[in-house]
Design the sequence.
């Protein structure tokens, strides 16, 4: 527990305030964020992730409890102080297509510049190093409109970096990105947290990447918030209940959620190596079979390699397939 | 600054004095160039009337056009950024119409006594006060709705509706007003840069310049607002304060131009687009000054176009501004997927 705590919440209530009444979404939340760590907030849609993020970033007032940022109540910060302590990356649509990367990142210096927003030499150095650290060096003079979604997100991350805030909040930073960019952005954020000793909190639906790269996970369900390292949460069955109303279960081996299928029949699967076994199980699961540990009285599948798969029925008849396609096309008929 | 941008700045910078001089030298009465130079350098002219035309009509008109163009364009740019909508402008949001309603109330109910031709100073002060109150009322309504209406699009539509309401109020007023009142209101409604006489000019200029200075002081929050309100708030911008200051500045600029020159359409809407397209940036550091410059150039050009029929009279300003403004808006809308600042 050597890492310095930057933000802590005690009995926090979050929700909406309208027409004199408070509608609470969550009560009694307790959590903390530490410097140098990447924290991922996971949870189903509509559970209040965005409300929690907005409350922490002070864009929405809280209903009750306390929220302490660097030893001071969040309420007691004025706009300018807060803008130097918290940087945000949102999913809002901005009208910045006509600005260059350099200009957008420079906007992040606003909390530090004077009335006219003039940039000092130090400001310019910080902007340059932020652009380089997100890997947009060659794009610094490009218009935002010319960037890919992933590059746009990187530019907004660079904007948050030059705010020099110890805490950075990102609302679904990988939502619109392809798989490669998702990994790249999450990796980048983890690197920034570690090397620049910042505390980064992001909300995401990308559970796989969150499990791989987060130092801590926050699981938000209707019942409340659970915090811990990904490994502890996985091994203590905490992820199993994340989507409890839905027809999905958490697969610990694969570290991902899979559809819960009603299995009709058992099958024993043998394979030459782990990879073949994993994909054999994948195919059989999809086709509605339940992989079993013993071959007594049930059909079995022996996977020699991707082009040789032997099926043996309960009556000991053997059929050899040359691909999974052949297998999936005929196996349902064989068993019926 | 790239070479291209510097060239465009220089081009616009040279166009301004050329057009300004053009406005002095060209008009419905032809006066020899030598005489105009004489008059401008303080000398005597061959005819008394020429001196009057140059010093009391063309010079104040050129200065008025320059300032009106700049202030309407600045208003348009401020509104487009604040409402996060490229189609926002003083006329669309009903601010123009609000000012018109104020003017209509003053003009129609004081009868024909404040004819546009009579140029009585106290009468014009009353018209100006009416315009400012009208514009600020529309602003107040927009501000009131902005406290609980979230989307800027909704706010934009509310502005349009308020504009319609003011228009119908004006029509009702016209119905009950005297014939002279209606006539002078109609003439005013055609728009003209000739509405400011030389003795009103200092007052008019000072008010406009105050508004323009205020707009340049808002550059930092305007740039932050490009990112959207929540980003701007996170960058330390006091959103409410910034928005109020912006709308107040726009109210002052629009009311002052509308009171003197009538409800001029399209300059506020189209010029910010011309400026963005030419300069290729949304950064207000350079965009705002360039918009002021372009607005002045466009207004001078429109004013010159009004005098084209030569000795046969003058075309109303509001017949000219849509001819240049509407095609630009249509061009921008059709090509929006190709234009950077839309994406």
Sequence:
């Amino acid at each position: 527990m050597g890492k310095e705590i930057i933000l802590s919440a005690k009995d926090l209530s979050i929700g909406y305030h309208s027409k004199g009444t408070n509608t609470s979404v969550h009560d009694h939340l307790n959590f903390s964020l530490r410097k140098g760590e990447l924290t991922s907030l996971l949870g189903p849609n509509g559970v209040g992730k965005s409300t929690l993020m907005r409350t922490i970033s002070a864009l929405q007032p809280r209903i009750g409890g306390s929220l302490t940022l660097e030893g001071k109540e969040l309420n007691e910060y004025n706009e300018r102080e807060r803008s130097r302590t918290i940087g945000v990356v949102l999913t809002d649509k901005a009208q910045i297509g006509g600005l260059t990367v350099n200009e957008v990142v420079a906007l992040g210096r606003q909390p530090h510049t004077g009335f006219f927003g003039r940039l000092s030499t130090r400001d310019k150095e910080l902007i340059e190093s932020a652009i380089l650290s997100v890997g947009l060096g060659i794009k610094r003079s490009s218009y935002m409109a010319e960037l890919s979604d992933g590059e746009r997100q990187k530019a907004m991350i660079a904007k948050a970096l030059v705010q020099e805030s110890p805490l950075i909040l990102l609302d679904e930073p990988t939502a619109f990105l392809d798989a490669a960019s998702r990994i790249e952005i999450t990796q980048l954020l983890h690197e920034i947290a570690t090397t620049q000793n910042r505390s980064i909190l992001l909300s995401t639906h990308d559970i796989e990447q969150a499990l791989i790269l987060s130092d801590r996970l926050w699981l938000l369900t209707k019942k409340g918030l659970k915090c811990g390292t990904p490994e502890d949460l996985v091994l203590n069955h905490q992820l199993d209940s994340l989507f409890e109303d839905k027809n999905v279960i958490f697969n610990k081996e694969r570290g991902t959620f899979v559809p819960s299928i009603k299995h009709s029949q058992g099958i024993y699967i043998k394979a030459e190596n782990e990879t073949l076994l994993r994909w054999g199980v994948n195919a059989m699961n999809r086709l509605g079979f339940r992989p079993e540990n013993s071959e007594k009285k049930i059909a079995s599948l022996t996977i020699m390699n991707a082009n040789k798969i032997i099926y043996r029925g309960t009556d000991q008849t053997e059929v050899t397939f040359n691909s999974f396609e052949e297998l999936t096309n005929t196996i349902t008929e064989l068993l019926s | 600054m790239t070479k291209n941008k510097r060239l465009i700045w220089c081009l616009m910078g040279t166009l301004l004095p050329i057009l300004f001089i053009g406005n002095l030298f060209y008009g419905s009465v032809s006066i020899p160039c030598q005489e105009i130079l004489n008059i401008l350098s303080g000398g005597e002219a061959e005819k008394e009337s020429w001196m009057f035309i140059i010093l009391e009509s063309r010079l104040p008109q050129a200065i008025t056009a320059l300032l009106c163009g700049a202030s309407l364009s600045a208003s348009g740019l401020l509104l487009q950024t604040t409402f996060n909508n490229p189609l926002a402008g003083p006329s669309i949001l009903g601010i123009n119409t609000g000012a018109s309603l104020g003017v209509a109330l003053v003009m129609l109910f004081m009868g024909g006594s404040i004819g546009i031709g009579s140029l009585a100073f106290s009468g014009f002060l009353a018209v100006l006060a009416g315009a400012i109150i009208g514009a600020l009322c529309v602003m107040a309504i927009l501000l009131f709705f902005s406290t609980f209406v979230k989307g800027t699009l909704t706010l934009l539509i509310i502005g349009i509706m308020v504009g319609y309401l003011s228009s119908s109020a004006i029509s009702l007023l016209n119905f009950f007003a005297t014939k002279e009142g209606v006539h002078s209101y109609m003439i005013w409604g055609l728009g003209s840069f000739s509405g400011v006489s030389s003795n009103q000019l200092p007052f008019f200029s000072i008010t406009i310049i105050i508004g323009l200075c205020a707009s340049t002081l808002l550059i930092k929050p305007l740039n932050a607002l490009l990112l959207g309100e929540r980003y701007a708030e996170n960058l330390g911008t006091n959103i409410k304060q910034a928005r109020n200051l912006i709308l107040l500045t726009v109210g002052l600029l629009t009311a002052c131009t509308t009171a003197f020159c009538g409800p001029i359409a399209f300059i506020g809407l189209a010029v910010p687009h011309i400026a963005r397209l030419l300069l290729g940036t949304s950064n207000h550091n350079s965009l705002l000054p360039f918009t002021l410059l372009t607005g002045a150039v466009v207004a001078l050009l429109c004013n010159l176009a009004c005098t084209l029929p030569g000795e046969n009279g003058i075309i109303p300003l509001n017949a000219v501004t849509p001819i240049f403004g509407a095609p630009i808006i249509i061009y921008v809308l059709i090509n929006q997927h190709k234009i950077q600042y839309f994406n």
Q: What stands out?
A: Chain B is about 75% helix and 0% strand. Chain B touches chain A through 29 residues (CB under 8 Å). The radius of gyration of chain B is 20 Å. The longest helix of chain B spans residues 48-82.
